[in-house]
Amino acid sequence: CLGSRTPVWEQADGCDEEAKAWARGLASAKCSASGGLAVAGSDIPPELGAPHRELLRVSLVANQSLRSLSVGDVSSGCARLLAEAIAQAAGERLPGGKFGRPR
Which pLDDT belongs to residue 92? Predict the structure, then answer.
């Protein structure tokens, strides 16, 4: 996926259009001057699951200005999925994330 010219969100099998649109938005989101980005739990598609992990990882890496991600109140499953994507993206510019209170 990463080596092809078609963005990963266009190739993401098993991912619905809302998740693909959100991933595109995450990849191009404006960050603070220090590279921080805050995402409200209500902004995250509720159906995110294991098939979306690679999509999230690539989106995090694609955002050239992203250095830290703060995530609002999300379910424990969503928090785990995002933490896994952040961990996989770590070392590629993203040192980690912070999470709000899990539901």
Answer: 53
